[in-house]
Amino acid sequence: MPLTAYDLTGRTALITGAASGIGRSTALLLAEAGASVHCADLDARGAEQTADEIRDSGGKARHHALDVSDRTQVAATVAEAVRADGRLDVMAGIAGIMHRSTVLDTSDADLDRVLAVNFKGVLYGCQEAARVMIAQGHGGSIITMTSGVIDTGAPELLCYGAAKAAVYQLTKTLATEVGRHGIRVNAVAPGWIRTPMTDRHIGDDQRFGEQRMAQLSPLGRVGDPQDIAHAVLHLASDASAFTTGQILRTNGGVHMPW
After folding, report:
1. pTM for this structure?
2. Annotated active-site positions, please?
3. How open is the CA angle 250-8-134, to the nearest 5 degrees?
4. CATH topology classification for 3-194+225-248
5. CB 145 within 8 A of CB 187
6. C-alpha distances out from residue 72 to 42, 75, 96, 117, 147, Å
7. What is the 3-state secondary structure (H, E, C) of 33-89?
8. What is the rounded distance in angstroms from the CA atom of residue 196 to the CA atom of residue 243?
9. Which tens digits make up the pLDDT trace of 172-197?
10. In the chain, fewer beta carbons within 10 Å around the N or the C end?
11. Residue 233 and residue 66: Cα distance in Å, rounded?
12. So where are the chain's domains?
């Protein structure tokens, strides 16, 4: 397949969580591939900085302050993106939070807060994007962000794991419902990726924590946000035109039976 299959020129992408980490790297890469990128994040200043970097590199970008757990805000942000560019071709729901507590210590407030962002926030984005893409009539690509934690139990990550497992089901279910409209729905399930969020949860000794995580991978390293951004680009582009309902496990092989 020619490399032009990865060209997103003329297309519009909305990225949540675009202020930092995987979301930021994805926004920059999709812009480099030619997309007009809408950078959305609760951290409005961070989203603006990502958009500024895209524009400084000659790309096209706007930023939006967005709390993904608020359905009204999500609907308004999608509408703003469509109003600005006249279309929406790619929706990447990357915004997420992490909470650590044992099962016995998990409170209603803990669970509700993580589900509101990591599951409901993705659901709202999927719903709004799918409605727009169906009305447009020329398909589109919706990409969610689940996690390697869906494949194995992880101590103290009940809330995070439950939300990401729900995203897994959302992805596969939505794919079956909107495929007839030419809309593809896929997920990326990262392994341990070096981001500001994971840095906060890896423990006091960052170096030891990374070494421990790297030992779990046959590749001998932890991931970088750019690793995941390239996976999103693949799913956003025509290179994955016959791919839907799939979970792309970009995890360094940590779940391989080796």
Report:
1. 0.91
2. 160
3. 90
4. Rossmann fold (3.40.50)
5. yes
6. 14, 5, 18, 14, 26
7. CCCEEEEEECCHHHHHHHHHHHHHCCCEEEEEECCCCCHHHHHHHHHHHHHHHCCCC
8. 31
9. 999 999 999 999 999 999 987 776 66
10. C
11. 22
12. 3-194+225-248
